[in-house]
Amino acid sequence: MWRLRLIVDDGDPYYQMALDEALLILRSVNVTPDTLRLYVFNPSAITIGYFQSLSRAVNLERARELGIPIVRRITGGGSVYHDSNGEITYSIVSTLDRIPRDVAKSYEVITKGIVYAAEYLGVEAKFIPINDVVIAGKKFSGQAQIRRRNTVLQHGTFMYATDLDLLASVLRVPKIKLKAKKVPSIRERVTTISEALGRRVTRDETIDALKYGFSKALNAELYEDQLRPEEIELAKNLMWKYKSREWLELRP
User: Fold this and answer.
1) CA atoms within 13 A on the CB side of 47
2) How far is it, in rounded angstroms, from Cα 168 to Cα 188?
3) In 88, 110, 155, 163, which residue has its Cα 20 to 30 A from 41's Cα atom?
4) Total-model pTM
5) What average pLDDT does range 35-43 have in this prediction?
6) Residue-wise over 36-67: b if at least 16 C-beta within 10 A, else e?
7) Phi-psi group of 49: left, alpha or beta (phi > 0 → left; psi -120 to 50 → alpha; rest → beta)
């Protein structure tokens, strides 16, 4: 069975993105082990995909009014609102010895962890290729991925009690995408575990469910551990990039 290090934490949005990149770098040179992180953005934040236009992905006026920090990821995908009181983000960093090399298949294998976690909480969820998970057709989880050498980083969301009205007010989705999904607005496109169950799901419940889900999906024995000094140091050194206006306003 695969022994997979588990890190559970919360903290600064810039640091969280820097740490994901640090773990990818260090795993790609065999300095650190395969790792699953379950973390919270604290305070709540918005992340945008590497290839996105900032102004097209985010309602900047509303985000500034609410004081919500915005961070650009190194991965692709769309804009995300990370609610510190209603969303857990996961990231997994692993060599491709454990994860399928085929991109579509790797998304399916890893994202089964989200499906199983939802089922653990009593909700029937479905993986929609290439990177969404839905409940009754509404999205509650999205994933993004990047590879370096023989290593993959995949991170994604698990909205268990996200404030969806706030989410809809700060994120922008192209009309063509909404039309393709046959919904009039982003609010009609998304849901949460709590909304599906008709009760408020807690953070602790969600973390337990995600531990179960990823352990089952990856056939892995999770062992909780602490970050290593070199991981923390590299993450801190990378924070300047994620805090910089140049990175945020990047035009890939």
Assistant:
1) 28
2) 9
3) 110
4) 0.94
5) 98
6) bbbbbbbebbbbbbeebebeebbbeeebeeee
7) beta
